[in-house]
Specification:
Blueprint lengths: L14 H18 L14 H17 L5 E11 L4 E10 L5 E7 L4 E7 L4 E5 L4 E5 L2 H6 L9 H8 L11 E7 L3 E6 L7 E4 L5 E6 L5 E11 L2 E11 L4 E12 L5 H4 L8 E4 L11
Parallel strand pairs: 6-14
Antiparallel strand pairs: 1-2, 1-13, 2-3, 3-4, 4-5, 5-6, 7-8, 8-9, 9-10, 10-11, 11-12, 12-13
């Protein structure tokens, strides 16, 4: 039988070798350009964006009038190596002072009543019918086994969202954090050494190292009459202390509290003593 000859045309001589050489050349070019997949470069964050966030925060502060008076109610969970307890509080007064503070146990029994003035703190204990005079916050909070990074008047500013006089106006540098947040650092040594703002220019965290390293987170943020408040604050320190503070009610006042509502009148038979000197090393009174 005669073999049928294929009608398909044969490539001219040298064509296969040319195609192979061309393919090798393409491979070499592709390899030289890098085998990693192309990635879209993230646009650099300009200092103007960080500056705008910081400016927005202070613009809101300047646009919010100072409170002549306010009242707060909430609870405080205290965790230290020596204790674990929960107390409730009522705080009211004319900011920053004078203030009245009532502390109660979880069952509602009164623990102590405080009258907080600029130059002294008077604490009355119902349990032993005694009053104690402290010269500053360090002395007063030592009775609770605590060393707070702020004085009680400044803590009240923090609770009511008033950062004037509490936070520095100028920052030295900033850091970009996940979630559209910025961390800002002061130009010199300050009690607050780091501030974190979210994308809405609200303070969500603070940290510092006086009188020891501490970190404060502001959670469940809400606005009330122009004030950005935190309904939950968590303070941790390098001394294995943790405080969880919850604000249940905040009532701003348009006028100051009467002096009679702030003054603590002691029973006639009350024993009064001084808490004496207490060196916290914090410098915060």
């Amino acid at each position: 039988m005669q073999q049928t000859r294929s009608l398909r045309p044969h490539p001219p001589a040298g064509t296969s070798a040319g195609l192979l050489a061309f393919a090798c050349l393409l491979l070499l070019i592709w390899a030289g350009s890098g085998c990693a997949p192309l990635q879209r470069e993230k646009p650099p964050v300009s200092s103007q964006e960080a500056s705008s966030t910081w400016a927005s925060f202070w613009s809101r502060q300047e646009g919010t009038p100072s409170l002549p008076g306010a009242s707060l109610q909430g609870s405080l969970n205290i965790f230290t190596p020596e204790q674990k307890r929960r107390i409730t509080f009522e705080l009211w007064g004319n900011l920053p002072t004078p203030l009245r503070l009532h502390l109660r146990a979880g069952i509602g029994a009164t623990i102590s009543i405080w009258e907080i003035r600029r130059d002294r703190i008077l604490i009355f204990s119902h349990r032993d019918n005694r009053a104690y005079i402290a010269e500053n916050t360090a002395q007063a909070t030592a009775t609770m086994g605590l060393q707070l990074p702020f004085s009680l008047p400044r803590m009240t500013q923090l609770l009511t969202g008033n950062w004037k006089g509490l936070l520095w106006r100028e920052y030295e540098r900033f850091e970009v954090l996940p979630g559209g947040k910025y961390a800002f650092y002061p130009r010199d040594n300050q009690r607050i050494g780091r501030v974190i703002l979210d994308r809405k220019a609200r303070i969500v965290a603070l940290s510092g190292d006086r009188p020891h390293e501490w970190h404060l987170e502001r959670k469940d943020l809400t606005s009330r009459k122009g004030y950005v408040l935190s309904q939950r604050m968590e303070l941790t320190t390098e001394r294995d202390e943790e405080l969880i503070l919850r604000i249940k009610e905040f009532q701003p006042r348009s006028d100051p509290w009467p002096e009679a509502d702030l003054r603590l009148d002691l029973p006639p038979d009350t024993m009064v003593r001084s808490l004496g000197s207490f060196d916290s090393g914090s410098g915060e009174q």
